[in-house]
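Progress note, sequence design subtask.
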């Protein structure tokens, strides 16, 4: 049980609430908006794909950053630096989850199977981007943004503008809150020349950039609402999501970063779950 808990902590399993609600949204867009058949097996496979892909990405990030994590006081107690999980075991974990992701994709359709390799390049490649570009937050957002369009493709086998708009929502939402999260390591990143928007622009400008990106997120939420011809329930959920989007900019201030974790996990976690629930309920009613 202790070993299992170590791996659950290793991949921050609770953070699944960021991507899973949007994967479910993509699935139900295919079922109710595009008119495809609801099949439980497809839903299970999509959920497994999302979990295995996320485990691969998080595990690889921890593996590739293990030396940085050892040097950073905030991350020194993570599973690899603390010796709870060996680097070799971590890499094995990544390989197994990557293969399981590909296998589950195979049982959905050919397009998703072929694109699973592209998806792995994106989600694993993100871990290297902080070494050469401050746009790393955007790559993380791109990785998570694959969840709604990926789930939609798994059912329909074709692209559509509406699920793409939902992917843009995830892209900019994630990018914005990851910039806020990175504020915790601004001094460390500057000392060892790791790239991030906070380490390049500083705290105050980074919060402004994050706010602007979240304004774009709100724009895509509104655009998706009109394109999908959603009803009142969606707009109520959208209002809550947008409020929570900007609430984190109220509680995180340039001279007071003490509420970053509250903004990152609690606020964004609640926002993603509620937005997905209201959107899915609107699709059915």
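Output:
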């Amino acid at each position: 049980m202790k070993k299992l808990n170590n791996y659950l902590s290793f991949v921050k399993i609770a953070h699944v609430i960021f991507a899973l609600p949007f994967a479910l949204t993509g699935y139900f867009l295919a079922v109710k908006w595009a008119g495809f058949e609801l099949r439980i097996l497809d839903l299970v496979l999509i959920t497994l794909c999302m979990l295995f892909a996320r485990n691969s990405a998080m595990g690889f990030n921890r593996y590739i950053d293990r030396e940085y994590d050892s040097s950073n006081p905030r991350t020194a107690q993570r599973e690899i630096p603390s010796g709870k999980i060996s680097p070799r075991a971590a890499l094995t974990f990544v390989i197994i989850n990557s293969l399981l992701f590909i296998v589950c994709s195979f049982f959905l359709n050919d397009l998703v199977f072929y694109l699973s390799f592209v998806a792995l390049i994106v989600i694993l490649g993100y871990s290297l981007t902080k070494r050469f570009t401050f746009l790393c937050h955007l790559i993380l957002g791109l990785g998570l943004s694959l969840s709604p369009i990926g789930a939609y493709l798994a059912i329909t086998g074709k692209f559509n503008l509406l699920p793409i708009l939902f992917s843009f929502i995830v892209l900019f939402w994630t990018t914005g809150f990851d910039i806020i999260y990175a504020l915790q390591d601004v001094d460390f990143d500057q000392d060892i020349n790791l790239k991030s928007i906070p380490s390049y622009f500083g705290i105050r400008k980074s919060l402004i950039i994050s706010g602007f990106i979240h304004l774009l997120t709100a724009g895509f939420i509104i655009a998706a609402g009109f394109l999908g011809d959603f009803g009142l329930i969606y707009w109520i959920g959208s209002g809550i999501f947008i409020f929570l989007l900007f609430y984190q900019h109220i509680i995180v201030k340039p001279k007071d970063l003490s509420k970053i974790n509250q903004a990152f996990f609690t606020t964004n976690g609640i926002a993603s779950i509620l937005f997905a629930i209201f959107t899915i309920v609107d699709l059915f009613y």
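The first helix runs from residue 2 to 10. Work on this subtask will continue into the next period as scheduled.
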